[in-house]
Amino acid sequence: MEHFFLSSVPIDASASGSILVDDGAGAYVTFEGWVRDKNEDRPVEFLEYEAYWPLAQKEGERIVQEAFERFGIRGARCVHRVGKLQLGDMAVWVGVTAEHRDAAFNACRYIIDQTKARVPIWKREHFADGTKSWTNAKNNLVSPP
Fold it and tell me: How far apart, in whole angstroms, are the C-alpha atoms of residue 108 and residue 92?
């Protein structure tokens, strides 16, 4: 079963979460990352996300599997958008189920933090002044396209 996904269409958090329903879980934790209107006090108009799909899928899946092993969770799923996103759009969604809340919270944080650090997904911010800039590229395994 796959647990990490790239999506070129808006993320359906409800549908993603429904897959994690589990009578043995006592905790369900989610994280949603949204496109905000500024970065470092500079107005942002929109974002573009690009990914190296084969490696992103493989590394994302590895991260979720690590979360299962480290935290003893029952279920997990991570969905990251690619393409053009407008202000307020959901860029990433993570959901985790576990028997207890500590494991669910810790695994959810681990998945989003490791995804941002290791998965080759690049964010290009388009600013109101017409400039654009790649961000978060320094931590990824390969350079942006």
Answer: 12
Q: Report d(CA 136, CA 124) in Å as an integer.
A: 9
The token duo for 103 is: 């494991």
Non-local (6+) Cβ contacts of 144 within 8 A are 50, 122, 124, 134, 137
Tens of pLDDT, residues 8-43: 999 999 999 999 999 999 999 999 999 999 998 999
pTM of the model: 0.92
Distances (CA, A) of 133 to 13, 46, 145: 28, 11, 13
With H, G, I as helix, E, B as strand and everything else as coil, classify residue 43.
strand
Paired with 121 in beta bridges are 51
